[in-house]
Amino acid sequence: MPQIAPTLASFRFTTDELPVGERATAVSRLRDRGLLPLKPLADHVVHVRIAKCFLPGVGILSGTLAGLRQEAAAQTQGITDDLFFAVNLTGRSVVVQRQREITLEDGNAVLLSCGDGNFSVARPEPTRFIGLRVPRRYLAPLVAGLDDRTMVQIPTGAQPVKLLTGYLAALGDLQDIASPSMSRVVAGHVHDLMALSIGPTFDAATAAQGSVRAARLQAIKSDIFENIEDGTLTVTAVAARHGVTPRYVHKLFELEGMTFTQFILELRLDRAHRMLRDERLLARTITAIAYDVGFNDLSHFNRVFRRRYHATPSDIRTMKPPDRHQAPAK
Questions:
Q1: pLDDT, position 205
Q2: Count of CB atoms situated within 10 Å of the CB of 258
Q3: Strand ranges, E, within 114-183
Q4: Could you give the CA distance from residue 2 to residue 174 in angstroms, rounded to a whole number?
Q5: What is the SS3 assignment for 160?
Q6: Handedness of CA 214, 215, 221, 224 (dihedral sign)
Q7: Any idea what DSSP says for residue 95?
Q8: Residue 82 class from Cβ within 10 Å (0-12 exposed, 13-18 middle, 19+ buried)?
Q9: What DSSP string describes 238-288?
Q10: Residue 303, Cβ neighbours under 10 Å: how many?
Q11: Closest CA to 197 of 120, 129, 139
């Protein structure tokens, strides 16, 4: 059966485990409860796999939809000034507002007004998307002529949109937005990147450079996480994948008080330490673990590991795990 989180701070829903014939009914029930503004399309197979979370000043909806129309009606939902930024990652969406219609293909985006009459986004076939709902007051100071920016298609390949979607994807991987202070920082970055995507004022574009750097750094860190086992991983290769120079990558890490090399080394050592402590990997040799996490030189691995943990890899592996039932020392 579909699973729904008990609170709306984090909301997930999928029809994957539902019979095809029951999906439209399940979605309609959620719509009636005010949880999902989705309406099944006639003669189409319904598919839903979405996640929704809320940060200060921004609601983030992402996932895959098919056979559905997403609708927003200010009169019925009590929305008066919210804006909805729809990013079509893959697939095809048909957007209608104020008797105007545009079609979004892979990589397109559009800004919609929740208070300017109803809008709908129809997704007949599987479409992967991100939708951001933001109160107008957060974007109005950042975007010149904000009202004129709605229902204007943003073309595929727009760099600010790519930064925005990459930033959100990296945050999802790193699970780094749990604390209230971090949530506010992330929300601020999202507002800045949205403004850059839509058309910022000169002052806002200048101020948003910090958010651009944060988005690039988060995407680069996510890239490193995914490729850490590659012993040939270099700053040149990472920079090329993100369309920036190696010097720019070095600068991003320097602003955080570390180097690119230090970040990779700490990540590899942490992963090796966890693997050595994992009882399921006792049959895995220390040499194999060293190579698994990206070290090409066993002597170098032993040396930096001992400097980091003041113990050899063998010491860590043979260390008795703490007794979970033992009373804490007083």
A1: 66
A2: 12
A3: 119-123, 127-135
A4: 25
A5: helix
A6: negative
A7: E
A8: buried
A9: HHHHHTS-HHHHHHHHHTTTS-HHHHHHHHHHHHHHHHHH-GGGTTS-HHH
A10: 11
A11: 139
Strands 93-97 and 82-90: unpaired
In this prediction the pTM is 0.69
- Distance of alpha carbon 277 from the chain centroid: 30
Degrees, nearest 5: CA angle 111-112-116: 145
For residue 31, give the H/E element and its range.
helix 20-32
Burial status of residue 74 (CB atoms within 10 A of its CB: 0-12, 13-18, 19 or more): middle
Given strand 68-72, what is the order of strands in its sheet?
38-40, 68-72, 119-123, 93-97, 100-104
Residue 252 in tokens: 């991003």
Which positions of the chain have pLDDT values less than 70? 1-9, 73-80, 116-117, 172-179, 200-205, 207-208, 320-330
Cα–Cα nearest to 58, from 159, 167, 205: 167
Task: Please enumerate in sequence order all residues whose Cβ is within 8 A of that of 3, keeping only pairs 6 or more positions apart, or say none.
Answer: 12, 13, 14
Single out the residue of 95, 85, 87, 162 nearest to residue 122, CA to CA: 95
Distance CA 263, CA 238 (A): 13
242-255: per-residue pLDDT in tens? 888 999 899 899 98
Work out the widest C-alpha separation in the chain, in whole angstroms. 71
* Cβ proximity of 191 and 138 under 8 Å: yes
47 to 42, 123, 169, 181, 260: CA distances (angstroms): 13, 10, 21, 35, 42
Q: Inter-axis angle of helices 209-227 and 260-277, to 10 degrees?
A: 40
Rg over alpha carbons for the chain, rounded to the nearest Å, is 24
Residue 54's pLDDT is: 85
Name residue 73's amino acid. A
- Helix, coil or strand: residue 177: coil
Is 50 within 8 Å of 63 (Cβ atoms)? yes
